[in-house]
Specification:
The complex is a heterodimer of chains A (about 180) and B (about 240). Chain A has seven helices and seven strands. Chain A has a single domain, classed as NADH:ubiquinone oxidoreductase-like, 20kDa subunit (Rossmann fold), CATH 3.40.50.700. Chain A is α/β, with parallel strands linked by helices and about 180 residues long. Chain A is about 30% helix and about 20% strand. Chain A has a five-stranded parallel β-sheet with strand order 2-1-3-5-7, with helices on both faces. With about 240 residues, chain B is an alpha+beta fold. Chain B has two domains: about 80 residues, Roll (Ubiquitin-like (UB roll)); about 140 residues, Alpha-Beta Plaits. The longest helix of chain B is centred in the middle third of the chain and has 17 residues. Chain B is globular. The chains are: A alpha/beta (about 180), B alpha+beta (about 240). Chains A and B meet through helix 4 and helix 7 of A and helix 3 of B.
Chain lengths: ~180, ~240
Amino acid sequence: MSQPAKLRLATVWLAGCSGCHMSFLDLDEWLIELAPQIEMVFSPIASDIKTYPEAVDVALVEGGVGTSENLDLIRQVRRRSRLLVSFGDCAVTANVPGLRNPLAGPAAVLDRSYLELADGSARWPHAPGLVPELLERVLPVHELVPVDLFLPGCPPPAERIRAVLEALLRGEQPQMEGAEMIRFG
Amino acid sequence: MSVRTLRIDGRDVASGEGTTVLEAARDAGVAIPTLCHLEGLSPVAACRLCLVEIEGSNKLQPACITPVSEGMVVHTATPRLREIRRTVIELLFTEGNHVCAVCVANGHCELQDRAVDVGMDHARLPYRFPDRPVDLSHQRFGLDHNRCILCSRCVRVCDEVEGAHVWDMAWRGEHCRIIAGLDQPWGAVDACTDCGKCVMVCPTGALFHKGDSVAEKHEDPSRLAALLQARRARQEAP
């Protein structure tokens, strides 16, 4: 008898602090229950694979889109994933990374961060091809590619992540309503 | 006082003449979401969150300033109204810089709560990320324009309750903002009595106590009603 196909899960880290991923790890012993039900095909915390694979079932995307690298990756994630989840407030609203947006573009941001606020040896970081370029603004994921599900929170509490994953594993649409599920912050 | 009978969401309601639809609905146990409204201050219908449908009229009416009338049939939660309310909240979130995670009012914010009420899991409108200043010139309080939703509670409480009239609304459209005195730094306005009522009634983290960090603003705007009741009781005492 064939086993039911495992859910091919990916987690992606764009412009965010990794707090959403830490909250995912806060699932603690439930991760042991989760493990046999999924195949973790891409994740900065659970996999060494560097290239985003094909045919991903669910992608949890943390972070806003703030660099050229973020933009390339989110487009690839969209093309190769069935269900794209905006995972946490940075993905949903741009949140803290978006605090730089009222400044007038990357040059103003780099001036502020690396020159005006520097203690000594003030200079812009410069490593073409190695350090990705900043985009004009940090944007929420859904302003650039279609998003299937929004999982807000800074970070989303582990129980909220679990409620979403449990519904998806049952093949159901998670009910995103009420303070337990959609409160920002 | 003569009584008006009306229907709100299928419930028969009897209310005194001069009662607003909002008051009548709340008396009847029908919750209509509000932001700019606060018991103890004059209603201004600024936020448009309490819009309701009244049969026989194509225009939506703000429940907070619409008086009840005989035979009125009111609907407070139609799909059209739900859509409008969510859009109102999305407009507020995308117009300013409401970053809940790093806000003094995180966890005690009426805007954050209303977003949950209207089912906002994301904004369908693009964020504007405006460049807005923060006024820290007052010795005890701060004003962060990034988080201001222009509800005008501070303007009203300072004028109607404290009698100091420090605050006003200036400019128009996207430039509309709260000003102190004659558009002066707050700390330079002599009329301010440092009473802090504006901070108490602010529904968001726009007005705050200096020194409060993330999620440390725990004000309760409903205290205003208790304050006014105490003041009345003292005035009426022999």
